[in-house]
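Suppose you are handed a protein chain with no further information: no name, no annotation, nothing but its sequence. What can you learn? This example shows the usual starting point.
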Amino acid sequence: MPELRRSLSLPLVVLYGLGVTIGAGIYVLIGATAGRAGIHAPVSFVLASIVVAFSAASFAELSVRFPVSAGEAAYVRAGFRSGALSLVVGFLVILSGVVASAAISVGSAGYLREFVDLTDAVLVSIIVLTIGAIAAWGIMESVIFASLFTIIEAGALLAIVGAGIGGNPDLVFDLPRVIPPVADIGAWAGISGAGLLAFFAFIGFEDIVNLAEEVKRPERTLPRAIFLTLGLATLIYFLVTSVAVLSVPIDELAASAAPLSFVFGHMTGASPVVITSIAVVATLNGVIIQIIMASRVLYGLGKQGSVPAIFARIQVRTRTPLMATATITAVVLILALAFPLEGLAEWTSRIVLVIFALVNMALLLLKRRDGTVPDGSFTVRIWVPFAGVLTCLALLASDFVT
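A reasonable first move is to predict its three-dimensional structure. Written in structure tokens, the prediction is:
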């Protein structure tokens, strides 16, 4: 039976991770986040990155212990010794991928509508079906496609930062304004309220572990890729969001369907066509990476025997799980046509926080039973997964309070 091709190096894996985080986050949700946290929106992204950091460290160690597709399901199976809970987590991961992909597809349609006068339903259908076909084409082709998109979209974000600071050099000295006083309860409540949306912007690093069977030297590549992705994404988010909230009216930013195009046009007075085009690229990139991730998890579950074996079949010519990819694409299309962007993003965050909490608990149980990992491999102290559980539950709890 054909197997997945082990062909991805560290740069490609980092670009893959950055592609889904950047495309899924800053291009789509900067306006919604600013609408809740106001000028303090950059702090919401920093807060979310702290929550993510503990889980990232746990994923890094678990990716070394279990370098397989459907990673989260395998981690929970080993930690809890429960096939049933493992299957639940596997489906939650797939659900998070399809809901996130649907959210990004809706966001992409918002940018694409700047160029073509078509309904959202038509644009969303074109986006999802085209990207699903690319994902079925082949992993190397898909990741190279996504990597090129990532370079373009990251360059556009840096251009926005450069334009903001170049047009107003004093902006650098205004950065402390985005951090509220400790005693300002209202500001911190807004930051907390935006935390769930900001967390969505970091979803993506965990997708890296599901490429384990297609990565060269996964024991070294996966932990490095996870931390590089998280660090670079945090820096980019903070800079871009700071420039945006300090340069344009918050209410107009929050109301825009194409927020970064609005920011660029407002700061420079130039046509936002280029930035809008890149935003379309960025969001399409997020869609393809989420579809790849969800299809690989479905493939992994099929390989483990948890779902029908047809989902584990690899197409001989493309060396991709064709049935799994087609199924995921169909579900993404249904969700994207049925639900609005902000609701899809919030539900993605809730699902992923539950997954992260279970993965951290699985590592905690593994460490209590057996703290050993292969010599020279990445490992964390036992307090790290414990902190990961607490931070995930705290962010979930803040959703109910705010």
